[in-house]
Amino acid sequence: MRVEEINSLDSESGIIASLIHNPEFLFYSENLLPNHFTNKDNQCIYTAICNLVQNGVTTIDPYNIIEILNSSEATRKYSKELSVDRLQEFMDMSDVIARRSVEEYKILVKNVMDAAFRRDTFQKLKECQALCTDLSVENIEEKIYSLIDDVMTEFSTTNDIPPYQDVIDECWAEIAERQKEGFAGIPFSFIPHLNDYATMEKGELILFGGGAKEGKSILLLNIAVALLSMDKSVLYLDSELSTRMFTARILARLTGIEYKDLTTGHYSDEEASKIAEWIAWLKTRKFTHIYIPIFDKQSIYTAIKKVYHTQGIDVLIVDYLMWFTLNALNCWDALRAELTTTQKRIALIVMV
Question: pTM of the entire structure?
Answer without folding.
Answer: 0.56
